[in-house]
Amino acid sequence: MQAGRVAEARLLLTQATQLDRGNPALWLHLAATCRATADMSAAGAALEQALRVEPRYFPALLMKATLIEREGRVREAAQAFGTALTQAPPDARLDATTLAVVQRGRELHRRYQEELRAHLDASLLRTTAASAAETQRLAQFFDTTLGLKPRAQQNPSNYFYPGLPPIEFWPRENFPWLAELEAATPAIQAELADVLASQQGFTPYVEYGDGIPLDQWAALNHSLDWSAFQFYHYGRRYQDNCARCPNTMQALSKLPQPAVEGRMPAAMFSVLKPHTRIPPHTGVANVRLVVHLPLIVPQGCGYRVGNVARQWQVGEAFVFDDTIEHEAWNDSDHTRVVLIADIWHPQLSDLERELIGKAMIEMDAFNGVNTPLPL
Fold first, then answer.
1. Could you give the C-alpha distances from 250 to 241, 246, 257, 294, in angstroms and in order?
2. What is the pTM of this model?
């Protein structure tokens, strides 16, 4: 083959495949000689034999995609490249020629995904009288089915309760009290201004002791770059802070917050200094959801939960599942502040809430954890 004696190479490889029909590499090389002699039908047949032996054989999958592309069947080629890419080794392990084909395949597959997504938008989302929640779910269905975005998965660090759906940002209609919370924004902002002026009562949000793996938290551990003015933390009420913000406490009292000794509720002013990023992480328990009420939001701030990114808007609250990977950033030159609180998951019954809380307390007691905390 290297000497340019392609026909002879094809004959020898044909004989070799008869002697060792279970060797996918021989079928692959035979396909290459067929392609070199412009016998695309025979090349395709040889590749099918290679894939019968080893259906995940990446070189054969990749060559199959290139043959389909050469025939001008663009959409089919894009799908074939998508299949091949699922089996591709890391780029560093590919030779330059193969890497170039892989990169072209990625681009072709991505273009196909985007075109199909646009088609679905035009034919369905823009012509159907769907609610905002339905539109959001359908859009995520399109994105995850087409592989444009990863599927959101719950991954709580401690407590996983089965049967609760992984929804990044929950539809507003599930929380009729959101409007009242938002209406309290000016009063809460006024109290926040006094708190910020005094600079008293703020603590680092991340406070790990010695001997604890820090992982992504090393830069923020014991740092006021991300700080909190706590009202409730692990169920403990910070009485002095609460007394300084009566309007905030009044607004929080309207929320269905969990009350589990030593664990919940949680509520705080979350302060993120300029040019600070909160790394991707997941929360503790999927039995609760988290509420954000943005209070001070300069340009250049953002938030991602799962595969959905949002910009905070001052006075517009939202509810999300913090057991889905999420991150935040403040790329501005100014401080960002959000009121954060937890609430019970709306799909838990009253009995489930009661028993979940008791289970947490019983686990702590069994393990010798001193749950009662000073007020």
1. 13, 6, 13, 17
2. 0.76
Query: Residue 104 and residue 66: Cα distance in Å, rounded?
Result: 10
Q: Give the CA distances from residue 359 to residues 56, 112, 353, in Å, rounded to whole numbers and listed in that order.
A: 46, 49, 10
List per-residue pLDDT tens for the chain, 375 residues long: 889 999 999 999 999 999 999 999 999 999 999 999 999 999 999 999 999 999 999 999 999 999 999 999 999 999 999 999 999 999 999 999 999 999 999 999 999 999 999 998 888 888 778 787 788 888 888 888 888 888 889 999 889 999 999 999 999 999 999 999 999 999 999 999 999 999 999 999 999 888 778 888 999 999 999 999 999 999 999 999 999 999 999 999 999 999 999 899 999 999 999 999 999 999 999 999 999 999 999 999 999 999 899 999 999 999 999 999 999 999 999 999 999 999 999 999 999 999 999 998 888 888 877 644 433
180 to 208, 246, 249: CA distances (angstroms): 36, 16, 13
Please, what is the Cα angle at 242 between 240 and 244, to 5 degrees? 75
| Beta-bridge partner residues of 287 | none
DSSP secondary structure code for residue 336 in this structure:
E
In angstroms, the first-to-last Cα distance of the chain is: 82
